[in-house]
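Researcher: Go.
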Amino acid sequence: MPLDNDQAATVLRLMGELNTRWARDGLTAEESTKIVLRSGDLMACTGSGSLARARRIVHSLAAHVSLIVDEQGTNTLIEWPKWAEFQRLNTPTEGNLREKPAPRLPPPHPHPQDAPARHKSKTRARARRTPARAWPEGGLPAEDLLTLNGWAVDNGYTQAQVDSKVEAIGLWATSKGVTRCSWVATIQGAVRRDAEESRNGTSQPRASGGRSQTPIEDAFTNIASRRGLRPGR
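Model: Structure:
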């Protein structure tokens, strides 16, 4: 089942807390997987008004990701064993550094006449290996949302940018019956394009009477215009 709003917001804030603590305190990969939160910090991380509700949220989140939650009086210990692996924080040992092989030379470029044929052959092979799928009826699974959240943190995007594209693309794909081999890659590409257009100042203004439309309103407006209807009917 996909994460609900409280769980998705909590896991993103928790990733930010772990990442900040690792970078600020110079922790090892193993040390970065554990954090002790005071009652106020836990309530802020979960967006809750009480310690009891905050703990219910992190316990429910543990059913989706590999969290270990230990209540210690008013403090709460949260351990995420796969955090270091997920963030690729494990560094090579000294022995591995000494034994690092010499870099391999890149393969020669294919002959210009052979390149198009090889490209088409690889594209067909990928299409055979990964069949196109429709948008999941219950929304993106928790694993895909975690992958997108981790990708956003690594590449400097916000959760709002990712969430807006998940909503808009889900509505568009459901209404049009669109299929894709990877919805995660589709959403990542849309976020990158929007960010690039925003940086270049090429994003189009919203015709919404002085306010910005939400991604869902954008999708409805687009669908209605293609059917010859006025938005809002």
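Model: The beta strands are 34-37, 68-72, 75-79, 133-134, 179-180.
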